[in-house]
Amino acid sequence: MTSADTALDPRQFRRALGNFASGVTIVTARGPDGRKVGVTANSFNSVSLEPPLILWSLDKRSSAWEVFQAASHFTVNILASDQIALSNHFARPQEDKFDGIEHDSGLGGAPQFSDCSGNFQCANYQHVDAGDHWIMIGKVEKFEDYGRSPLVYHQGGYAMVLPHPRGRKPESTDTSESSNMLNTKLGDNLFYLMVQAVNAIHSRFVQQHLSLGLRNSESRLLMVLESAPSACLGELQQAVAMPAREVEEAMATLQDKGYLNINGDQRQVTATGHNKLEELWDSMRKGQKEIFSELSEGEMEVFKKALRLAMTSR
User: Which intervals hold domain Flavin reductase like (predicted)?
Assistant: First the structure.
């Protein structure tokens, strides 16, 4: 769909921007009066090495603007892949977002969170007026790199970093047994096998969903709503790994496409939606059959049991 098709509809524009994968941060500050603020943001980016500058953007409607404007410093906390709950917490408007949230104080008193991938403590350097947002530029005075796997945001949902199976072109076409990773100790490591398996097939299913006119986040939400139409927003967030705002926007998109009826807190998959779901399930069944054609029915049941055990271990 092009911009001409959507006439720059805000929701469609956000969906298009969602094609660009980014990290997830919580930016914090402490004002001169001691008030602490924090917002979830995926607009973080580098600007300059000399001097060391970074930027992020803040919605002009945010009640945190006055504090960020007056604070001497702010901290960009880069979230780790297991910090979805923290991201969702600071994405919601609340009286005191820090109530019950463990944190330390960095430069200028800006809150810092433990177990992040890292953080950048910045002096307020420049504020740029840009449409409906303020671009906040900070001069990095201190940073910490913990090397934890980061939380990723893509197509309206949370994701995580996985090594790409084709990320490095082999220097040789030699396919001898010694160069085959599956014939080494890695081939007996279940965690390695699970990661590589997800890498190998994930894009295939995403493309199948797109060919049916649905983004991965929309197809996941539609499948969840078929089984749990009365699930609360928090349950839906957990089931599809998406922020609350994106869940709500995905539901609105599904409604626009005629796949979902929404009446207050009541959600019902329409007849058209059930037809689309049949297409989705049929596509997934065919893909599953092709990939696991060598497994017997009994072996498939054992495989499913193993995956369920892995899922319940978290």
Answer: 17-160
Q: Which residue shows structure tokens 């996985």?
A: 162
| Residue 177 binned pLDDT confidence (cut-offs 50, 70, 90) | very low
Q: 152 pairs with which residues across the strands?
A: 23, 159
Name residues whose C-beta falls within 8 Å of residue 68's C-beta, 6 or more positions apart in sequence: 27, 29, 37, 58, 74, 124, 134, 136
CA pair distance 265, 258, nearest whole angstrom: 17
Contact predicate 113/38, CB 8 Å: no
Cα–Cα dist 222/290, whole Å? 24
- CATH 3.40.50.300 is held by the domain 181-312: no
Q: Average model confidence (pLDDT) for the chain?
A: 86
What's the rounded Cα separation, in Å, for the pair 225 and 250? 12
CATH architecture group of domain 20-154: Roll (2.30)
Burial of 148 from C-beta contacts in 10 A (0-12 / 13-18 / 19+): middle
